[in-house]
């Protein structure tokens, strides 16, 4: 049977390949040239750099990445050496759509049903946002010049498909919509460049991200607000899940691309090891409030192990039980 090497931090793989392939699960640092030499396929995430250094001399002919992007894969090398590469565009789209609607409900708690929602970019995420809007009875205007040129219009019942509903301009979105949510790649050149897209016409509107954590309309490139916050990251596999938890403080720092926040923590070496070495690879949630005790207690009821990166477990337990420390 073919052999597949799989990064062990990818969730939900389980025994999906039982009976069709021999599988080896390895942490990112364990995926070495020696480990993949006799493999036919790899399934990785961003921690694994797939290039000549890893793949030369191996029999690998297929690389799948459980990520949207492919920056960690030398696509030219793979193409020239007959190695097929596939990624997972849209794999986190439902989670982003959930964030959008949570933001809408937070922004307009009492009158969201009467909104007109502007969606810029009707792709993987924007289509889900639009579909849920239809189900909730919220009016949608969509702007997507590449799709407009390709499809002409879109289908509200199936937003990812072409249809008779016309696309509108960004000016229409800015003029007629109560809330604008932007789901486009960040590009600085080309016919449909999106760099500072929100600044050009839509800065007068509440865009998703602005009233919550960011002071920059649209949150295309923005620094999150400072202050005390809770960091949280969920990860795991095969029924064994944990939640990384701890406190941090937003501080001044150099400009960084995208949406970002520089932070200060008490136990940086431990947090760094957790994020860089795994299992909690990169993205974390920041909550502008100390909710560590709440999340710690919630873990008991959902079968998740709390993993505190600060040595404060007893303090958290005391807070939950109402014990005042002297």
Topology (SSEs and partners):
Layout: E1 3-7, E2 22-26, H1 33-36, E3 41-44, H2 52-55, E4 62-65, H3 75-80, E5 84-86, H4 93-107, E6 116-120, H5 124-136, E7 139-143, H6 145-151, E8 153-155, E9 158-162, E10 165-166, H7 170-176, E11 179-182, H8 197-201, E12 222-223, E13 227-237, E14 240-251, E15 259-260, E16 262-264, H9 268-277, E17 285-287, H10 292-302, E18 304-308, H11 313-320
Parallel strand pairs: 1-2, 1-3, 3-4, 4-5, 6-7, 6-11, 12-15, 14-18
Antiparallel strand pairs: 8-9, 8-10, 13-14, 13-17, 14-16
Average residue pLDDT: 85
User: What oligomeric state is this?
Assistant: single chain
Helix content: 25-40%
Helical run tally: 11
Percent strand equals 25-35%
Task: Give the helix/strand class.
Answer: alpha/beta
Distance between the termini: 63 Å
Taking all Cα atoms into account, the compactness measure Rg is 23 Å
Low-confidence segments, given as residue ranges, are: 206-220
The string of secondary-structure elements, in order, is EEHEHEHEHEHEHEEEHEHEEEEEHEHEH
Number of strands: 18
Q: Which strand order spans the largest sheet, edge to edge or round the barrel?
A: 2-1-3-4-5
Overall, the morphology is: globular
The main β sheet shows up as: 5 strands, parallel
Please, could you describe this protein's structure?
The protein contains eleven helices and 18 strands. The chain has helices spanning 33-36, 52-55, 75-80, 93-107, 124-136, 145-151, 170-176, 197-201, 268-277, 292-302, 313-320; strands at 3-7, 22-26, 41-44, 62-65, 84-86, 116-120, 139-143, 153-155, 158-162, 165-166, 179-182, 222-223, 227-237, 240-251, 259-260, 262-264, 285-287, 304-308. Helix 10 crosses helix 11. The termini are far apart. 28% of the residues are buried.
């Amino acid at each position: 049977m073919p052999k597949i090497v799989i990064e062990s931090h990818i969730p939900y793989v389980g025994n999906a390949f039982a009976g069709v392939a021999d599988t080896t699960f390895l942490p990112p640092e364990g995926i070495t040239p020696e480990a993949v030499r006799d493999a036919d396929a790899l399934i990785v995430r961003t921690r694994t750099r797939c290039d000549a250094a890893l793949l030369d001399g191996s029999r690998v002919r297929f690389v799948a990445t459980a990520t949207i992007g492919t920056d960690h894969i030398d696509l030219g090398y793979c193409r020239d050496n007959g190695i097929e590469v596939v990624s997972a565009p849209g794999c986190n789209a439902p989670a982003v759509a959930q964030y959008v609607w949570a933001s809408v409900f937070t922004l307009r708690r009492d009158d969201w049903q009467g909104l007109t929602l502007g969606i810029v970019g009707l792709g993987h995420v924007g289509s889900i946002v639009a579909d849920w809007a239809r189900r909730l009875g919220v009016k949608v205007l969509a702007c997507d010049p590449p799709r407009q040129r390709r499809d002409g219009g879109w289908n509200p019942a199936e937003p990812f498909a072409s249809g008779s509903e016309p696309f509108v301009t960004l000016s229409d979105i800015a003029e007629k919509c109560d809330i604008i949510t932007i789901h486009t790649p960040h590009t600085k050149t080309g016919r449909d460049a999106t760099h500072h897209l929100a600044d050009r016409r839509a800065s007068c509107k509440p865009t998703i991200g602005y009233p919550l954590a960011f002071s920059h309309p649209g949150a295309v490139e923005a620094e999150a607000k400072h202050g005390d916050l809770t960091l949280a990251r969920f990860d795991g596999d095969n029924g064994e899940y944990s939640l990384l938890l701890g406190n941090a403080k937003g501080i001044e720092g150099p400009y960084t691309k995208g949406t970002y926040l520089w932070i200060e923590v008490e136990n940086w070496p431990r947090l760094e090891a957790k994020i860089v070495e795994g299992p909690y690879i990169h993205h974390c949630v920041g909550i502008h409030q100390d909710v560590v005790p709440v999340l710690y207690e919630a873990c008991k009821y959902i079968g998740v192990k709390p993993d505190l990166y600060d040595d404060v477990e007893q303090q958290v337990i005391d807070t939950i039980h109402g014990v005042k420390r002297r």
